[in-house]
Amino acid sequence: MCQLHTGHKNKTVWIVVGVAGGAVLLAIALLLWWWLLAKRPSAIDSFNKITANWQGKTIALFLDYDGTLAPKVDNPDEAYMSSEMREVVQELASLCATSVVSGRARDKAESFVMIENLHYAGSHGAEIKLIDETEAYEPARKYVPVINQARERLEEAIKEIKGASIEHKKFGISVHYRCVEEEEQELVKKLAKQTIKGFSELTVTKGDKVVEVRPKAEFNKGFAVKYILEQLARKNNWDSSQVVAIFIGDDKTDEDAFKVLWKRVGGLGILVNKKRKWTKASYSLEDPAQVQKFLQMLLSWKKKAEAEV
Ligand SMILES: [Mg+2]
């Protein structure tokens, strides 16, 4: 009886050890799988491979600004791009359709880049202005009145809380609480959420000490890339199968653009990051200095290709 009991106990121990061991092995395998898949080859080292089939193709180039063309800095108002970077982008823009696609307001992005012959998409694609158009395409324009109304309610809701402030953007509202006393920060978040509940067209996301309010409308960097490609194809009679679209960006919001290009034949996403990251980009560059080097290689390649035609 006692032997039977001990045998049963041993069996249970072995099952537990087996399951635990299996779980550890599975975790290691998953980690290895992630480690291998998250590695993206360098766009510089792979340049010849990347451009191998590009002869005769039209290039559409899309560039994020912060962390891509300009290094990230503590004060976003001081995120300047170098004159060398400006020169190469400007020269490329005369040979390829080039767009800057930024999370910043369009006029802000334009004032930093200071290149005229570019298409600009600002506010994550909520305002897109093509070179030859006088008016910007604003997919969220119809939400401006409701955003203004929500802003007034938010101002009313948080007016008693010291340090809370509201930043009004054309297509969104940021409720900042970085300067609010610690014990009142939760209250700001709660009041903002409660207020926006009354606006079915708006949605709330959390940032770093900020509540972001934006329309539920579908716009992001992926939509912006699609829209610009469609417009350029229509205006220039492009055969879309002969267009190579490249997006270079460093941020989470750039993944929307990488996703679009991942699915597209002739799409190329390049992530700017030193670390391994789960991404839909196909290649990587480490920092804006490498972005500049890649753009210079692209410019030389394009000039050579034009000369051979
Ligand atoms: Mg960026």
Describe what you observe in this structure.
The chain crosses the membrane at residues 12-36. It catalyses: alpha,alpha-trehalose 6-phosphate + H2O = alpha,alpha-trehalose + phosphate. It is a single chain. This protein has helices spanning 2-37, 47-51, 83-93, 106-113, 144-158, 182-197, 221-236, 255-263, 288-308, and strands at 58-63, 97-101, 119-122, 127-129, 165-169, 172-176, 202-207, 210-215, 243-249, 267-272, 283-285. By secondary structure, the protein is α/β, with parallel strands linked by helices. The protein has three domains: 1-37; 47-139 and 218-308, HAD superfamily/HAD-like (Rossmann fold); 141-215, Alpha-Beta Plaits, CATH 3.30.70.1020. Strands 4-3-2-1-9-10-11 form a seven-stranded mixed beta sheet, with helices on both faces. Strand 1 (58-63), helix 3 (83-93) and strand 2 form a beta-alpha-beta unit. The protein starts with a helix and ends with a helix. The model has no long low-confidence stretch (mean pLDDT 90). Magnesium ion binds at residues 64, 66-68, 249-251.
